[in-house]
Amino acid sequence: MSGAGTGGVIVIGWVELALATGFILVAGAVAIALRLGVTKSLWIATARTYAQLLLLGLVLGWVFRVDSPWVVLGIMLIMITVATLTVARRAPDAPRGSHRRVFASMTLTGFTITFAVTALVVHVEPWYLPRYVIPIAGMIIGNSMSGMALALERCFADLDAREGEILALTALGATPWEAAQDSVRAAIRAGMIPGINTLSAAGIVFIPGMMAGQVLAGADPMVAAPYQIVVMMMIAAADVLGSTMLVMLSYRRRFTADGVYLERSMRTDAR
Amino acid sequence: MHATPPCALLEARELTVVLPGDAGPVRVLDGVSLTLACGEVVDVTGPSGAGKTTLLRAIARLMPQGSGALFLGGVSASEMGPQRWRSRVALLPQKPVIVAGDIAENLTLPWRLKARDASLLPDANRLRSALDEIGLADVALERDAARLSLGQQARVALTRVLLTRPDVLLLDEPDAALDKASSAALAATLRAFAEDGGGIVRSRHRDDDGLAMRRLALAAGRLTEEARP
User: Would the pTM count as exceeding 0.80?
Assistant: First the structure.
């Protein structure tokens, strides 16, 4: 049931899909034989991949047909909400109320970069064209999610590791910013590193996702490459913007109004 | 023999600090009051965990949870911003904190903060003489501060605070990491600070070194005057 589909895409049918799942059976057999203890997770993850991606295909098909800006904006907000929960879960030591700050940073980053790219670089018409806006927003939100989670986790781990130094600096008259700035910088740097690594390795270690997709769909590689460059630039920008905003909004929460750092022994929400 | 203290410098009234504990809130300080005159040195003694560090931090306005009132020279702490208060009532934590860089950079750190007037930055001669006074005459200002011994780091950290000319020094176990000779140099420096009118509160578990005019014992969050031997 395979063959050339529309636009040069080779359609993968159910038989081929089942064949591909055979690879996971091999992985599962290895997991069982070596008693790796991941067999159940592997089956669940495989089932989720099927369910989530097929559902995504159905939803995207519907969204493309409906062609409404409200649906596009609604989907972006759902993506941001799920990403917010993921970031907050990965930084359990962050102060209470981190969800709000992650959501605010993610929303500003997601909307600003997505529409800057679609309007100014790709020149999408109309501005909400789902076929462009949703995949681009997904890439931006997904990537900045990783950077923001790293930055948030690093910020509060570093502040706790430096609590003696922060006390001494505060005792000398330092403001919270003066006491915390080294940790803030370390956190933003940590949030940017995955993006920088991706930029450096792109095209040598791997063919980036979007370019690979376009090439598989039959596009000229020289048409696909500029798209991918745009994507990489916007991902790097989203990493910097999202991590910086989140950390700047968050670090002060660990200090009292009088500028005293709340050490672990002083916190009622310490974990 | 000590002269009669000429003026009231610092007053702490009914300081209470409650911290979260494993079995519910713990009252670490329970209505502690303390007065310090100009030129006076007071030692606070007590077993580990008695709350000595918490008391010093509360006086420096470096404890988040707490109640009570603080006055410096008769002026209420509530009329002074926290950074201004801390630059006049200076806490030196027990563990010396040395930042990356040479000794001169460590000594001038306070003047890189907004709370201080950068035009009052002490010059190299002033830094040199301050180090000489505390017994670090053989240590160059250009030396990497990370390469100092713990005792030397403790003295650099104290010199840094002294250079800011606070009214009150709050010292948390200042001689815990020092040998006998270094302790003697430190005591001489502190005596000179007190003779200039500064007040000192030290938390100590060591034997009386004769510097303190009063010794107060802290137990179960309360402060009592110790009888002098």
Answer: yes
